[in-house]
Amino acid sequence: MKRWTADWPFLGLVGLLVVVALAMALFAGTPFGLSRYLANAIGQLAAFAVLALSLDLIWGYLGILSLGHGLFFAVGGYVVAMYLLKHSFVVTGTVPDFLQFMGWKDFPFYWAGFDFFPYALLAAVVVTLLIAGVFGYVSFRSRVSGVYFAIITQALVYVAMLLMFRNDTGFGGNNGMTGFTVMFGWPMGTSGMITGLAVASLVVLAGVLVGCRWLVGSRFGALMLATRDDETRLRTLGYETLRLKLTVWCLSAVIAMIAGMLYVPQVGIINPRLLSPELSLEIAVWVAIGGRGHLVGAVIGALLVNAVKFWLSSAAPDVWPFILSGLIVLVVLVFPNGLIDLARLKLVRPMGPKRIAAEVGEAR
Amino acid sequence: MAMTALLVDGLSVRFGSFQAIDDLSLAIDYGEVRAVIGPNGAGKTTLLDVISGITRPKQGRVLFDGAHEIVGRSEAAIARAGIRRKFQKPSVFEGLSVRQHIAIGADVGFRSRLDTPALEDRVGEVLETVRLADKADALAGALSHGQKQWLEIGMVLASEPKVLMLDEPVAGLTDEETERTASLVRALKRPDRAIVVVEHDMDFVERIADRVTVLHEGRTLFEGSMDRVRADPAVVEVYLGR
């Protein structure tokens, strides 16, 4: 791997994220500032990009495909929603809809302390590590891998969705949770809060990107690639790959959880649909389109696909599934390494159908 | 006085109804280069799989260094004990450089103890031995088949193993490359190291092996020097048929 100082796409993207974050912070409230809609969209896109990075870390660099990363995303989302509702209740006395709906007088006991954000954050990390740790340990220990692992993760997220659809679990049931009015003592929905959340998302994205770059460029990162390329070979060189896989798997889960914590305050609602298999599959599509095994690719893939989705879901919601499917077919057939293929072709020589065929043939 | 590096005792491995190894016993001493030959399906690779912990036998034991039972221990634990193995199909990490391979092979641990001068020296030394010094920064995926074979030998060599197992090290190599591999294997021979080579190329085996074990249907058919192997009527029959 190139030294980070010579990794121009990486430096460029981090620079861009920082510049956008700074500009948004500086120009907020002035006539040069972004509209609330646009600022909010950028914030959500950044949260999705963090989610894409979490999947790229284990899929692109460790060769483990998870089709259930929505689970960890939702853990972050649900916990931050619990914080927001409890905090809003403490500040304004608003009783959450789902409590009234269930006819409950008080929050369930396990909501205790969630109005204190550090505690909520800790709870989210612990729950994520518990789920990821137990599931990862059992799977990796019995050497479940490849498509079987992917299917089990998909089943896991589906089971979680069914669980959360139940109204008596105390997490809002099928209606989910909404009506967040206060965050950190400030009212939600103001342009200041929207900009603040978007800037925070961009900063976290830049931070996660730098952190991942450091990890994959380290010796540990080399061992991740070695595990991906030939795990038995690495094991018979004396490395316990179980530990390595479990570590990266848990790290990836925590990053996905953080993405969920950024996302939910910005959309203002969480419901079990976040746990539907579609979202978890879509994350893999973002990464595949951007270029798996490339951090910059994963971010660009998530930003691009979701920007198109934002635009189309208001302009022409019916065609979105076709566009998405078309992109998948294109990537699978023509650009197996995603947009990275496209970038390489352009840099090397002018594009022509023959060239593309030859290059892609080699890449396979 | 040759001490036993590996003692295989009453080993049996079954895959479904196929008896891959059938009550096999053999001893390999420090200081020797032992070739294991035999027709396809004789159990050669399965034997290496058992010794490196990849396959669990139905029964039998494998003692390392005269005392340590290795059946039932993990691949990684066996490797750390000093038993290293090159696979039949060259197994390298396509996305890593040649230098990174040797460093990974030399140093076991997740932390970065890698940039130390001692390790740099070791990597350089191994690269010289397997003659890949000029390819140090190339990606393994870009190497030729022969170079991949040497890279994998270098990777398992880097930790100074006590037992070095090479599964078909010259398969698919040119005559010149085979020649180089033969002198490499001879150069790796040391009084405190046992080298086990599984190979089909009889001329290669003749050049490198001190002793030859002929396996047939999971059992030892013959054990001795190569010229006696060639003269043995039972071996000739198994190899040439009737």
TrEMBL record, chain A:
Keywords: Cell membrane, Membrane, Transmembrane, Transmembrane helix. GO terms for molecular function: branched-chain amino acid transmembrane transporter activity. CDD domains: TM_PBP1_LivM_like. Its main location: membrane. Pfam families: BPD_transp_2 (PF02653). The chain crosses the membrane at residues 37-59, 71-96, 116-140, 147-165, 193-216, 242-263, 283-307, 319-340. It is a multi-pass membrane protein. It comes from the Bacteria. One of its GO terms (cellular component) is plasma membrane. InterPro entries: ABC_transp_permease, ABC_transptr_urea_perm_UrtC, LivM-like. It is found in: Cell membrane. NCBIfam families: urea_trans_UrtC. This is Urea ABC transporter permease subunit UrtC. It comes from Ancylobacter mangrovi. The gene is urtC.
UniProtKB/TrEMBL annotation, chain B:
Pfam families: ABC_tran, BCA_ABC_TP_C. It comes from the Bacteria. Residues 6-242 form the ABC transporter domain. CDD domains: ABC_Mj1267_LivG_branched. InterPro entries: AAA+_ATPase, ABC_AA/LPS_Transport, ABC_transporter-like_ATP-bd, ABC_transptr_urea_ATP-bd_UrtD, BCA_ABC_TP_C, P-loop_NTPase. GO terms for molecular function: ATP binding; ATP hydrolysis activity. SUPFAM superfamilies: P-loop containing nucleoside triphosphate hydrolases. Keywords: ATP-binding, Nucleotide-binding, Transport. GO terms for cellular component: plasma membrane. This is Urea ABC transporter ATP-binding protein UrtD. It comes from Ancylobacter mangrovi. The gene is urtD.
